[in-house]
Amino acid sequence: MENVSGTVQQKKNSFSTLQFTSLVILRLLIGWHFLYEGFAKVFNPNWSAASFLLDSKGIFSGIFNAMAMNPTILTFVNISNKLGLIAIGLGLMLGALTRTASFAAILLLLLYYFATPPFIGYTYSVPMEGSYMIVNKNLIEAWALVIVIMFPTSHVLGMDRLIFPSKNK
């Protein structure tokens, strides 16, 4: 990173090395999480979003249940979920179209959140990983992506540096 020129170097220098590295690692970890989740679904021939959608509670449960009950929509949801997770993961890990990938990831995480909100009185057929009330990992990861958007490290260390060279001048 020493030979990074001009304003790009100034952007990096506005943070300490530890801060910059931490932000890049945050982006990479979230990217890995999405990429792995996508591939895990692709390589599991029995995976479907149907049980997740049918287990939905809350204000949008009717919509999510209807999606699961319609085979055409469910197929679209299954394919979109797999490909979306992989595309988001690759975008974040490569630092390519990072803002777009981050916004898509936030949208997807909020859909997951509202499908199975961690509210008192709601129980689900698949037990949660922890004990949540209002805030769960989906909400936390969505907020972490807001941080990724606010601090675009991919313009220094990522493909966005090549995709959007005008932002680096």
Quickly describe the structure.
It is built from 8 helices and no strands. The chain has 169 residues and is mainly alpha-helical. The radius of gyration is 18 Å and the shape is globular.
Q: Helical element count?
A: 8
User: What does the overall shape look like?
Assistant: globular
- How confident overall, as mean pLDDT? 85
Order of helices and strands: HHHHHHHH
**Share of residues in helices:** 55-70%
Uncertain stretches of 5 or more adjacent residues = 1-9
Q: Helices and strands: which structural class?
A: mainly alpha
Distance between the termini: 16 Å
Q: In percent terms, what proportion of residues is strand?
A: under 5%
Domain count: the total is 1
Could you give a short account of the major beta sheet? none
Radius of gyration: 18 Å
Number of E-type strands? 0
3D architecture notes:
With 169 residues, the chain is mostly helical. The protein is built from eight helices and no strands. Helix 2 runs antiparallel to helix 5 and helix 5 packs across helix 6. It is globular, with a radius of gyration of 18 Å. The two termini are 16 Å apart. The N terminus is likely disordered.
